[in-house]
Amino acid sequence: MPISLEHVSFTYMKGTPFEKTALHDVNLQIEKGEFVAVIGHTGSGKSTLVQHLSGLLHPQKGSVCVDGVNLNAKNAAAKKARNSVGMVFQYPEHQIFAETVYEDIAFGPRNKGLTPEGTDRAVKDAMAFAGLDFETFAQRSPFRLSGGQMRRVAIAGVVAMEPDYLILDEPSAGLDPRARDEIFKEIMALYRKRGIAVILVTHNMEEAARYATRLLVVSDGRIILDGVPHEIFTNHKEELLKVSMDVPPVYKLAECLQEHGLNVKSTPELADLERQILKVRRSRHAD
Amino acid sequence: MQSLIEIKNLKHSYIDTDGNEIHALNGVSLDIYKGEFIAVIGANGSGKSTLARHLNALLLPTEGKCVVAGMDTADDKNLWNIRQHVGMVFQNPDNQIVAAIVEEDVAFGPENIGVPPAEIRTRVDNALAAVGMTEYAKHAPHLLSGGQKQRVAIAGVLALEPDCIVLDEPTAMLDPRGRIEIVNTVKKLNREKNITVVYITHYMEEAMQADRIIAMEHGVIKMHGRPEEIFTKVKELHALGLETPLAAQAAFDLRQKGIKLADGIISNEELTEELCR
Fold first, then answer.
1. Please, what's the largest Cα pairwise distance for chain A?
2. Does residue A230 sit in the same domain as residue A142?
3. Which of A114, B39, B154, B185 has a C-alpha 20 to 30 A away from that of B21?
4. Which domains does chain B have, with CATH numbers?
């Protein structure tokens, strides 16, 4: 069952001189099992979009449904539906609040009504999942951790809720390359194991190319491109540049080689591009 | 070349709230020369930002020395003078913009240090022109894009007419165009106005633009050299938890597979040229 937006519009500061329409009649369906990357320039409306997916903002026009239940209704089914959507914000330190890592992660499961034993299990599972050793971290203050560790606590707190839809708003901003890889390893493991939908907001084209099964490009409150990342990065470069986006480095390298007459195809994988280069070199030497 | 900033055996440690002594900098020695563009890379927690904050006396050495334009940062009476020599730009533009109109924001610094009004006007106009934001002078900063806001923040520092600008991950929150805008702006200020740049980043493609690169780990400098020297040491970089620009990685991999390539390849153009020869 999908999460679906129908004819959703949203305007900030309506009726004031600062009125700004952030979403224009957006229609979108995301199925479980999809890994959707959302890209768009600052102010494009992508954050407004994902806040609608998680029920944090209510559409002024249209509706948002999760598994057929309207997120903005005021009943038990709507509450359950909202609980099925987890969101990790860009600044994990903003969503961390408790005195210990354990208490922070336990907040969601407890609120959901889990028993103390159930909560304990959920916390342990989530911590193991996020690569946080229980003995080392459970009783530590989350505020004294490194940026990468804080992010893991925030992810663990959301994972402990066992969401069917996981929204991540630039989870790797400001992290070094190794920490970036580690965070994504965890996200991919969760995605594969639980068959959930992941919705990733990112400014990093490489992440979109490497992990996503589907790419949404948002500009001026509209979804202007929706498709397979490889297809969009290969065939829609001009449109991407026009809306302040770009293609990933590996596509740029392939393009540079093509412009100089080397017969290689664009690919999201550097290893694949290298194989093609080797092949071209060999055939050239064979001539 | 004349050094603008001299750092000698700089150590910085503090006691954290659990009572442990943390050594953020463990003996860093570095000369930063006038007019150079230096990039600092390193994993989270390697000491990059701590080092940067010593350059304009936001932090003071526990041991060792940091001397800016001949002034010791540990001496109180140099403080304001040092901060006019070295300006800082941080990661999040929203945290460093103070006014409701772009040009007023840029004027904030010079007003604070008592620059005469007529000169403030000139400085603000020049600073906005230097970052390509003249046409937005009367705009509200919160309605600008991330890259534009960050350029306003840079203009705010420029209006103090510093010799050196230190930028701590200025593109971490920006979209691809915003990142290009910032890198190009910084390069232009360095080349055309001879402003010394210290640029901290996790993006190797940005670090590649510098004259010199410093790679840090555990509070010390582990690697130090020109981009083509640093980025061809693929294994050492990986050991520090860092990456290389894509073309350098490809050159490394292809060499391992037996393709002969010239040394020092770090850009797409260099790699393409080698492969097409």
1. 73
2. yes
3. B39
4. 3-244 (3.40.50.300)
